[in-house]
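[09:14] KT: can someone run the structure on this one? pasting the chain below
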Amino acid sequence: SFARWLRETTPDVVYVFDMGVAGVVAGAWRTLGRSTPLVIDTGDAIAALARSSGMRGPVGLLATSALERFSLRAADHVVVRGTFHRVLLAGQGIDATVIPDGVNLAVFSPRDGSAMRRARTT
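[09:31] RB: done, structure tokens below
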């Protein structure tokens, strides 16, 4: 039913958040041979993250690297979280837009919540 839904929809853009296999494959398949742009929001450099975590064996690292390479090549545009990641991708000839995580501390600033906590317990 998911494949049918993908065939029948006509989005203006396909935006894949994070480089998960299912999202990347579905996004690439949906945009294949169509004029619909594919945007991949990487979140992180997944192969480097996998290597640094030490949680994946050689096959897992190879699969993660292949997924990352495929995602970056299939994307019409890439979104990253930080400027250093954008610089790394630029070195590979890939243009990326930085949309940082976080909040504007001028708008969302830490406050003393002790009075609120006291009010909740009484």
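[09:33] KT: thanks! The longest strand covers residues 14-17.
[09:34] RB: yep, looked fine to me
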